[in-house]
PTS transporter subunit EIIC (Streptomyces toxytricini), 499 residues
Amino acid sequence: MPSDKHRDTAAAILPLVGGPDNVTSIAHCMTRLRIGLLDRSLVDDAALRALPGVLGVVEDDTYQIVLGPGAVARVTPAFEALVAAARQGSPAPAAATGTATATVTAGDLAARGAALRADRKARNATPVKLALRRIANIFVPLIPALIGCGIIAGLNGLLANAGLLPTVVPALAAIASGFMSLIAVFVGHNTAKEFGGTPVLGGAVAAIIVFPGVAKIDAFGQHLTPGQGGVLGALAAALLAVCVEKWCRTWVPEALDNLVTPTVTVLTAGLATLFGLMFLAGEIAAAIGAFAGWLLHTGGAFAGLVLGGLFLPLVMLGLHQALIPIHTTLIEQSGYTVLLPILAMAGAGQVGAALAVYCRLPRNRSLRTVIKSALPAGFLGVGEPLIYGVSLPLGRPFVTACAGGAAGGAFVGLFNQLGSVFGSTAIGPSGWALFPLLDGRSGMGTTAAIYAGGLAVGYLVGFAATWFFGFTDRMLADLNTDGGKDPATAPPANTPAMA
């Protein structure tokens, strides 16, 4: 049962999104409560941002309320229960009273951020980006299991290296590895569900990939191995199964549907998986792993600079979702993804830029309050409140935050090139929250020190770049006031084109 605090948060949110009748769908990811809305105009954005526990709001294909890791998993079921109770005629608890309203300057800046989000949403509504979003919907539900198993794997590695609890180590290894050994099945299940097929049929076809018996099969002279093709093969197999199933639903008589459709779906997609998709997906997965290794081995600091510097723009464009299957493939191959610690440096640059904005505007109490409330989440890798509430609306600080991310990425990339290769055993967390998930060739101490060094570089360069280049004199004059001129009307700050 959710605690009273989380129930109160859910009760406060419900009327501010237009009440239960305005809610068409409810879901959550690692940090956000995602709500489908019937009428967007009924939402009170400013009041939502002012709620205790709400770190920010993001408008995309759904209305997303940033609550942070942990909290969102507790608020969501309480919110669902309130909506269900209200629709059944039960009285829903009233929203908390006395909620502070946003001050003029913070509200104006937030309004500009909302306008930028709306523009970004329109730009992101392209077939490619919508397809990437659907791919992300397949993998996002798997993140909690990846995190849990990743942390257990890290703990098990520490115990094994220290020679402690030898009878417990095999048990922890089994717990940590069980999910990863069957991740293809979950990907197949989610793929079929996302694309309108029967989820269990997608899982059944994907299960072929990890079945030990495939080792006895030669496909056109190619000897198959269990797991070959991994999550990419499972994704392709389940997509094919959905297509076959939909074709069968069209042509098979209703009286025979329950017998013929599942059989034809599994048989057709299964044969295509064994005699084509496993080999093809295996080659693609191997190429991804080889390219990632080559990129950091030869590109080093430059590769890290580019990846760390461009990740925030990728997020703005919605293209970062294409990285999720790549991360998962790398984890499946080597136990960790070398890309995530570098990309996490973008968040460090964002934190450094926000700290500089805080220091450069000592009289703008409303904006400093926003930054103070969002910084703890920023240090833990939840960057949306700082991005949409501070740097992106201001324009120039967004660019200088990218510079901080580039510097931190270059630092981590350099050490990868020098042989200290490491990565994250799961996807989702960032910032300080990534420390328990780090793994690599050089031991936990060295790995953690390099990652911490990268964060420090990101903070410092993001701060310095924003301090010296984040504001024009006119911007400082207009923004460094307490309730003065509307910061949204500050002189053009060369707002990034990707916003």
About this structure: The first helix runs from residue 4 to 16. Strands lie at 23-28, 32-37, 56-59, 63-66, 218-219, 222-223, 422-424, 438-440. Residues 182 and 210 are 7 Å apart (CA to CA).
